[in-house]
Amino acid sequence: VWSCVFSPDGKLLAAGLGxxxxxxxxxxxxxxxxxxxxxxxxxxxLAYSPSSQKLLxxxxxxxxxxxxxxxxxxxxxxxxxxxxxxAVAFSPTGQQVATASNDKSVRLWDARTGxxxxxxxxxxxxxxxxxxxxxxNTIASTGFDETIRIFDTLTGLLVxxxxxxxxxxxxxxxxxxxxxxxxxxxxxxxxxxxxAVTTLECGRKWAAHTSDIASVTFSPDERWxxxxxxxxxxxxxxxxxxxxxxxxxxxxxxxxxxxxxxxxSHIASASKDKTLRLWxxxxxxxxxxxxxxxxxxxxxxxxxxxxxxxxxSQRRPMRQLDADSGDVDYxxxxxxxxxxxxxxxxxxLQLAIGGGGEEVTLWSVISRSASFVLSGHEFxxxxxxxxxxxxxxxxxxxxxxxxxxxxxxxxxxxxxGLRGFVQxxxxxxxxxxxxxxxxxxxxxxxxxxxxxxxxxKKIDIGRLGENSVAYKPGCLQVASCxxxxxxxxxx
Length: 491
Fold this sequence. Notes:
The chain is an all-beta fold. It folds into 2 domains: 3-292, 7 Propeller (Methylamine Dehydrogenase, Chain H), CATH 2.130.10; 338-490, YVTN repeat-like/Quinoprotein amine dehydrogenase (Methylamine Dehydrogenase, Chain H, 7 Propeller), CATH 2.130.10.10. 0% of the residues lie in helices and 53% in strands. It is built from no helices and 47 strands. The strands form 12 sheets. Strands 1-2-3-4 form a 4-stranded antiparallel β-sheet, with no helix packed on it. Strands 5-6-7-8 form a 4-stranded antiparallel β-sheet, with no helix packed on it. The chain has a 4-stranded antiparallel β-sheet with strand order 9-10-11-12, with no helix packed on it. The chain is elongated, with a radius of gyration of 28 Å. This is HET-E protein.
């Protein structure tokens, strides 16, 4: 994912991809609703019109495109650059757009006709970033010549420029009041500039990242600055003091773009690790929670035919996704959240759902309703598993019990003999045995027919950490995975 941008009305999130496509997401559900196709190479930059009705994209195919954001049709193709288009911007009036390229030029275009208005004489070096002032009467550009230049958008003339900063300036953005400009550099430094009437005054400068800064943006209330870098991190800063508020390290490759949502509640980050991530800003604690689209997932399972994926999270309802496209096909009722574990029955007709509510829900896939709500556990349920015939369901919980349920009647009974939180349960391929793992260094084996404990194995791994068990398909070997980083195979 090379670029991303929220629409001004907050309803859409666009993501530019390396294959030339643009994915459009509905921010109400975080589902992908459209794919715009047209560019032949990576989409490096995106900008919405102030009305949210148009989307501007720049690409390594040397062109920029203006799209109808509702239909996905291409209204205009802006051609003229001789190298990759690296940055695009919409004027606040929506009547003009700007593009910057590795051909060392900035071009201004009429957004209605696509006619070239000005070619701005930036410098003899590559232009990396452009931004319109909030009033729209000027546009700032910067690049490898270490200088910020500000041009009049009505005349195309240079209004002012900064002194050289000693490092390549890789990105810039205006504050919403137009009085400050934030820049990021190749040395990993952020700098604030006072954009006065006739001069650019150097402001606070600080070391922000360990490598090149790829993107920088102000929050809508100008309280925060978010930055992303080749060092694979996204960081949130206090825009007045320059103090670090939070740092996020979930990406595994350079983070090429970072943007605030219009209401400031989310930060979107696009990375070369092929992910688009959303960070939820928690203003009360000044911390952030992160989750990949569509949500922060605690558990997930495939349907037996592999065509569907069911994902559960702590704060949002469960979702059913198309396993090929990732599109959300169904959102479960609102009360079905705080989901710790999910299992599909082998016949594909039922789901077992356990979570923080101390109950297990048997869910009919066909009717999309609960067949049974199984009560008995006294603490959250962390593991569920169906027997191969789909008749029986095993559940394990933090109350230290494994329970066996009849999926036809909902009747259940407890398996006695455990101590500690049950973290994982699994049926043997022949359905005769249940294996369980708990946090107190125990692996146990149960006879399904009698409910009696048949084997109790202590493992010297320490009490801390997660433990999990699974049967090898087609045989009676059990694999166990432990918090000390080991995997063991048992007969």
